[in-house]
Specification:
With about 450 residues, this protein is mainly α. It has 17 helices and two strands.
Length: about 450
Amino acid sequence: MKLYAPWEKAFNKIATPFEHFIHAQTTTGMILMFMTVVALVLANTPLTETYAHFFHTRVDLNVGSWQLSHTIHHWINDGLMAIFFFIIGLEIKREILVGELSNIKVAILPIFAAIGGMVFPALIYLGINAGEPGATGWGIPMATDIAFAISALVLLGKRVPTTLVTFLVALAIVDDLGAVLVIAIFYTEQINMLPLGLAGVSFLILVVFNRFGIHMILPYFIVGLFMWFFMLESGVHATIAGVIAAMAIPSKPKQAPLDFTKHAKNLIDEYDNYPVATDHMMHERQKAILINIKDRIDAVGTPAARLEQDLHLPVALIVIPLFALANAGITIDFNSIGTTIMEPVSLGIIAGLILGKVLGIFGVSWMAIKLKIATLPQGSTMSQIFGVAFLGGIGFTMSIFVADLAFLNSPELIFQAKVGILAASLFAGLFGFFWLKYVAKRDDSQSS
C-alpha cells in the first residue's frame, strides 16, 4: 500500500518522476517534523535518561576475530544515513542528466542562488566565530533541508507557480552537492590511504558493471556495501560512499522507448486474442505474455530511476525519522535558553541560516537577473524569490549532520549548534511560508 499525503491526492494518478520526487519530499518533511517533536518531548521529560541510554547502546558485528562496534546513534549517522546520501546522489545525477540542471539557461539562476546561499552563511558564521572554539562549524549554516523547504511550498498549493517549486528543487540539489563536497573535503580529520584506495577500486568495479550494461541491482549493492565499509575505515565520512555509488548506477535503459511501444502493442494484441481459460483464470500463454511485458517494462526503465522511486519511501519512513529521533532531542533549559542562543556558535548559525541565506539566495538572484545573466522563473516574482530564500534557511537534517562532524568531541558546542539550527529553521520556515502565503501573493497579483 502506497502512502499518499491527504494534501496531495492529485498524485494518486499517473505522475511524472518529478511529481513522485515532490511527493516523497513532502511526505518526508511532515514525518520529519513529527519525529523532531517526539525527540524534543523525550529529551525534556523523565524519559530523557532512557532516551539517551538507548542511542548510546553499542551494537557489535563480529566475524571471527574481526569486530565492528558502534553505538546505535553512530550506526544511524554512519550507516542508515548512507542510504539517504545515496538518494541524494541519485537526485543530483537525475537533475544533471534530465532535470532542471540539464538546461543551463534554466539552471543558471538556481546554481548562482545556491552558491550564494552557501558562501554568505559561511562567511557570516566565520565573522561571528573567528578565533572562537566553534570556528570549525562554518559549514553548518550552508545547508538547506530540501524536504522541509519543499513541504512548505507544496502546502501553499496554487499560491505559488510550479516553476518556483522547480527553482527550489534545483537550488536544493546544488546545495546538497555543495554540502557533500564540504563534508568530504573539510570534515575529514585523518585519512587512511589503504582503505581509501580499496574504496576507489570498489567504485571502479561499479563503473565497469555500468559500462558492461549490468542492470541487476544485487551486484551494485554488494560492491557498494564493501565500498561503504572501506570508506568508513578510511576516515572519510562513510555516507560519502552513498553519493559516489549513486553516480555509477546505470541511467540508460536496456531497451529504447520506441522499441518498447512497438513490442508492447504486439504483445497486448496477442494477449487479447486468447480466450479466458475459465471464468477466473487466464490462459497459460497470457500469463507468459504478462511476464514478458513486465520484463520489457523493466528493460525500458533504468536501475537509477527504480532505486530512487523504491528507496524514497523507506528513507522517508525509517531513515530520516530515526535520524531526527537520534539527533534532534536536546534538553532545553528555558531559564538559560536566551544565553545559549547568544553564544557565538548558536548566533552564527542563526545569522547564517537567516541573514546569510537571504543575502545569498535572494541577493545573488536579484543581481543575476539585473545583470541579465539569468531570468526569473516563469510566473514568479522577486517577492516570491525572497520568500523562497527564507525557506532555504531551513537547515535541519544536513545542518545537524554537519554539526556532529564539526564538533565531534565537544557535546557543548553540538548542543549550542542544535539550538541554533532549531531556532533558525523554525523562524525561517514560518517567515518564508507566511511571506509566500500573504505578502508575495499580493505582489504577484499587482504585477499581473
